[in-house]
Amino acid sequence: MDKKRILIGTSGYSYEDWIGPFYPQGMQKRDFLGFYASEFPVVELNFSYYAQPSASTLERMIEKTPDGFRFAIKAHQSLTHKVDEYFPKEVELYKDGIRPLVEAGRLTAVLFQFPYSFHYTPECRKHLQRLCDAFADLPKAVEFRGAEWQKESVYKGLQEMGAAMVNVDEPRLPKLPKPTEVVSSDLAYVRFHGRNEANWWSGDNVSRYDYLYSSEELSGWLPMIERMLAKAQLLLVIFNNHSRGQAIQNARELQGMLRL
Fold first, then answer.
1. What is the spatial distance between Cα 43 and Cα 23, in angstroms, rounded to a whole number?
2. Which of 233, 117, 240, 106 is nearest to 170 (CA)?
3. Is 225 in contact with 190 (CB distance < 8 Å)?
4. Can you tell me the distance from the alpha carbon of 176 to that of 209, in angstroms, rounded to the nearest whole number?
5. Largest interatomic CA distance in the chain
6. Are strands 6-11 and 163-169 parallel, antiparallel or unpaired?
7. pTM higher than 0.90 for the full model?
8. What structural domains does the chain harbor?
9. What is the DSSP letter of 33?
10. Which of 60, 191, 202, 226 is the most buried (most CB within 10 A)?
11. What is the mean pLDDT of each run of 10 residues along the chain (260 residues)?
């Protein structure tokens, strides 16, 4: 397996409950990213959903990681969840914040993760087009939380907009997206959220993703990964089951299965 064509990492890295399972006891938070980057080639940043990213913050992250280390970064909520008349200004603010990643050649993708309430309606499809147009010059990926978006017409539209379709592994519940292997751009993208059915609708951002994949569950993705790699120039695989360092454990296991 070509290490340069598949990047496996986690969504976020700065979790206190990773001290012990991953980070050494006594390690300071300021040293987390450098330690993480010594083992994994990519991280998906999610703090940028809650606060607009600042160029100075991302410059410091670049300094703490080796040259080949890459970043995916989640879009701010003003772009995907709480859109209002200030949308154009929020776009410019966000793009200015991530400028260091772009200029350093470290940006793998901007992740547009839409909420479950983002339905397949003319209004939502119009916003998706507007958002992709606003980021036409940057690599981007789109994640839908509803199965209603799993249509060939959507995949074709994403391809025309130069956006990667995010394939997901999550609980097998009604109306949630089923596992797919769609490649709609040069980048293929997979996110593992865990299969915690009991907490999916009622849990918080920790308990919802509290899940450890079995070897059998991960190996079920191997043929799909092979087929995606045959179509894409780069495949990004991100584990979001971050509770208690389970994402680290599963990322390592998948790396082993792929002999990375």
1. 15
2. 240
3. yes
4. 15
5. 52
6. unpaired
7. yes
8. 6-257 (3.20.20.410)
9. H
10. 191
11. 85 97 97 98 97 98 97 98 95 98 98 97 97 98 98 98 98 96 98 96 88 98 97 98 97 95
